[in-house]
């Protein structure tokens, strides 16, 4: 088992030689933090100045990390991956919208993806962000228990209605819906809303999944309390587990506001928290279903080992592995090759609207120790193998 992620032939067999070279070039660039900073600033400037750079972005970083500009555009990517056993989670990656018409548009987009997924076996899962359906400030105020104005109350009711409409359709179409998590100071309200949806729609097979960011030291306790309520009240829990995406913001705000940081003190503590939560869920699979969102090889090996020890079938629909499109192909395609359920998050959207997402990807890759160098080593190995 310990060598399955080394197979670069399986990992990169969907990549042509030119795509392999592009990937190598991109990760080489991303490995230099000053280059990422300069590239980010230059790209932002070019887009704001309406310089004709979209074609260049599209043919390099966009096509590597995104499936296309719309759902139909993503179909070739989805079909090619599914032919190798890897499913897709279409992720409409347009960020930072703050007005009602945008929230309605994001909901309609999610409904369209669920209907789209219903027709394709290759897309068993859909996803949305809470702030795609409502203002960040509204979640924050709700979570802090501050009273809404009548206007805010109406606005909140529209947020709840959007969640409900999407989860209802997901239940009808038997498409699992992952609800992403965001910053801790808005997450309490999102958690409550996710739980309300689970109570309503996770009777029997779970459809609604909340996301736990396990760089937060309080999340396993939260899961255990949610699990207790679920068993008592007769619903099942859907949990997507990730390490997390907002660490710098979380620490900065905790320092500014003078409260204890919600982030684990060390990387090792985060890894331990992730692995303990993974084990807790796998040992309670009768009442919790799991989506393991990770690029960490050791956590994947642990999940595989636990599944074997607990007699959980590799293809059990209650356990999915997930990675981002354009990253960790050595994990995704090798897991699929060995019969596990695997789905790639496939971001899509207009090039200029998806840039904040792409910039975050580049910045995360420079800050995650070992991630980029691992990608480069594997790409180099495959280049050599093909030449031989």
Explain what the structure shows.
- This protein has 16 helices and 8 strands.
- The protein is of the alpha/beta class and 388 residues long.
- The two termini are 26 Å apart.
- It has helices at 8-11, 17-30, 33-48, 54-65, 71-82, 100-118, 136-143, 150-173, 184-201, 219-233, 247-257, 267-282, 297-309, 329-337, 351-367, 371-387, and strands at residues 86-92, 125-128, 176-179, 208-213, 237-242, 288-293, 319-324, 342-348.
- α2 packs antiparallel against α16, α6 packs parallel to α8 and α7 (136-143) packs across α9.
- The chain has an 8-stranded parallel β-barrel with strand order 1-2-3-4-5-6-7-8, surrounded by 7 helices.
- α14 (329-337) links the parallel β7 and β8.
Write the layout of secondary structure elements.
Layout: H1 8-11, H2 17-30, H3 33-48, H4 54-65, H5 71-82, E1 86-92, H6 100-118, E2 125-128, H7 136-143, H8 150-173, E3 176-179, H9 184-201, E4 208-213, H10 219-233, E5 237-242, H11 247-257, H12 267-282, E6 288-293, H13 297-309, E7 319-324, H14 329-337, E8 342-348, H15 351-367, H16 371-387
Parallel strand pairs: 1-2, 1-8, 2-3, 3-4, 4-5, 5-6, 6-7, 7-8
Structure characteristics:
alpha/beta; 16 helices; 12% strand; 388 residues; 8-stranded parallel β-barrel
Quickly describe the structure:
With 388 residues, the chain is an alpha/beta fold.
């Amino acid at each position: 088992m310990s060598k399955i992620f080394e197979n670069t032939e399986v990992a990169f067999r969907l990549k042509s030689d030119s795509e392999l070279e592009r990937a190598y070039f991109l990760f080489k660039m991303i490995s230099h933090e000053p280059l990422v900073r300069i590239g980010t600033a230059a790209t932002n400037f070019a887009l704001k100045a309406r310089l004709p750079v979209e074609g260049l972005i599209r043919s390099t970083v966009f096509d590597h990390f995104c499936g296309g500009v719309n759902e139909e555009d993503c179909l070739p990517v989805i079909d090619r991956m599914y032919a190798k056993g890897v499913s897709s989670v279409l992720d409409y990656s347009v960020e930072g919208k703050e007005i009602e018409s945008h929230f309605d548009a994001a909901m309609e987009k999610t409904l369209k993806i669920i209907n789209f997924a219903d027709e394709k076996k290759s897309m068993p899962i859909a996803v949305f962000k809470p702030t795609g359906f409502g203002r960040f400030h509204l979640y924050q105020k709700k979570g802090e228990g501050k009273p809404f104005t009548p206007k805010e109350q109406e606005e909140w009711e529209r947020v709840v209605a959007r969640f409900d409409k999407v989860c209802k359709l997901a239940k009808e179409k038997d498409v699992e819906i992952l609800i992403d998590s965001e910053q801790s100071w808005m997450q309490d309200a999102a958690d409550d809303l996710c739980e309300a949806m689970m109570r309503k729609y996770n009777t029997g097979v779970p459809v609604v999944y909340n996301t736990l960011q396990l760089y937060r030291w309080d999340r396993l306790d939260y899961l255990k309390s949610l699990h207790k309520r679920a068993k008592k009240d007769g619903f099942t829990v859907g949990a997507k587990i990730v390490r997390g995406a907002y660490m710098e913001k979380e620490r900065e705000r905790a320092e500014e506001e003078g409260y204890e940081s919600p982030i684990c003190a060390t990387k090792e503590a985060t890894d331990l928290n992730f692995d303990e939560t993974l084990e807790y869920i796998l040992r309670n699979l009768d009442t919790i279903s799991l989506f393991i969102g990770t690029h960490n090889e050791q956590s994947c090996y642990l999940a595989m080992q636990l599944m074997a020890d607990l007699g959980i079938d590799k293809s059990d629909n209650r356990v999915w592995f997930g990675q981002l499109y354009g990253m960790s192909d050595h994990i995704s395609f090798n897991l699929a090759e060995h019969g596990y359920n695997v789905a790639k998050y496939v971001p899509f959207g207009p090039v200029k609207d998806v840039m904040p997402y792409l910039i975050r990807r580049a910045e995360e890759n420079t800050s995650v120790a070992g991630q980029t160098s691992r990608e480069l080593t594997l790409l180099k190995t495959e280049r050599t193998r093909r030449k031989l």
